[in-house]
Amino acid sequence: MSEPKGLPPSLLDLSQYSDDGLKVLVVEDNDSDFELMCYRLKQGGLKYTATRVDRIEDLRRCLEHEEWQVVISDHNLPGFGSEEALRIVRDSGLDIPFIIVSGSIGEHVAVEAMRAGADDYLMKDKMARLVPAIERSLRAANERRSLATAEQAQRESERRFAAIAENIPGIIFQMHSGPSLPRPTVPFVSEGVIRLFGVPPRLFLENPNYFFEQFAADDAASLFEMLLEPPQAGAHLTWEGRLKPHGKYSERWVLMNAVAKARGNMFVWDGVLLDISDRKEAENHLLNAQTELRRVTTEFEKRREQERGAIAREIHDDMGGSLTKLKADVAWLNKNLSLDTPAAEKLDDMLELIEHLLASSQRIAKDLRPGILDYGLIPALDWQMKDFQKRTQIQGEFQSNVEELQLDPELSTALFRILQEALTNIVKHAQATRVDVELFVTENELSLEVRDNGRGIENADKLKDTSFGLRGMQERVAAFDGWVDVSGSTGSGTTVMVSIPRGNQTDEAEND
């Protein structure tokens, strides 16, 4: 039997239910009592659809095939009662409000029914309470569902958190610090401490100092000192330190990342402590490889400059001397022999060729190793700049804040080659009309700056695989623990800055 619509609007929000309103399943064997219930539902302003059953199998079938918002059951029915009906509803796994209606039910029975899961009970002579009882039961059911959903979400969140904590190469922790605490405490650590420290989490909770005792003494002190400083809310803490040796590990490194939030007069740090031992080992291998590569590169450059110097001396002394003698002999023949015109012209051609060979040998020897370096770096750089202007017609100037500077020969050669490479790049790419070079020497640092007014270098040009000139500068400077910076922008020229510390150099400078 169905009753379609109620009269005055109920206080219950029925928008969450079907268009037909609240679906009510009534377990009742008496038609008159069922009609009375429907009348009370109408009178209470509920929009509803009601279905009556009076047999257990019909109750089970309705629960299985349809969705209900409330079950109202008579206490005494032929063959079964409200206790059996309640058990069937609860065994179905459905969280449906269950209200018992009876003409005569003892208080003890009613209490037992409520303990068994009934939401409410009322006497048939007080059916005016039916709608309020339904509304109250529905609200309670909604609250139970919301709580169950929240608990399920909480369990899922905890499951995800546990999975993340289990799989990160370290631990998740919470730390408290602040003026109200004698020292920072760690009220929570994840199970990862078993892998990282080899001990269970409870030891960290039982002993506030245990967390800091796991670090090397110096590193623990630095972390403790950082935590003494009151942070700003939302401040980030990043710290690297070493753990005490554990198991097969002689040295292990960890990285701490944490975020602070204020809580009363203390700060709560939520963070992770990651095992970065493998990364540190890889960094050390890379650093050692770079150091070895730098040593090999430096040695290679040193040997190459030595070979260049030897070849330059051979060209200058042997070939240059022989060509000079040959030139003198040809000039003597041309002067002392009475030759016809063709023979004289031939000697003139020979003299011209010898002079060309002499000039070429001098140029090659100079390119291999300019002899001007023997007079010091400052005269060599000044000569190089003047020679550049003469060859390219590009205006420029060399300046230095010292008049004399005695450097290690390898460093002098490296700076000379760096300027040589910078000037070569200007000729090739800059389209400049002016170049200024400045050498600035202080007690702790030596700087060489090359500026042009050309088209400017773009970042993409610096990153090209074919930027061998810049790479060569970097390798030369790295051998002396220095650095190179190349900056510029379109239309504003390019600046090459070289800086080398003087701490490891045995040099002397006299200021102007």
Automatic annotation (TrEMBL):
| Gene3D superfamilies attached to this UniProt entry | 1.20.5.1930, 3.40.50.2300, Histidine kinase-like ATPase, C-terminal domain, PAS domain
Pfam families for the chain: HATPase_c, HisKA_3, Response_reg
Membrane-spanning intervals of the chain: none
Q: Which SUPFAM superfamilies match?
A: ATPase domain of HSP90 chaperone/DNA topoisomerase II/histidine kinase (SSF55874), CheY-like (SSF52172), PYP-like sensor domain (PAS domain) (SSF55785)
Domain (Histidine kinase): give its ranges. Answer: 415-504
Instruction: List cellular component terms (GO).
Output: membrane
Q: Name the chain's protein.
A: Histidine kinase
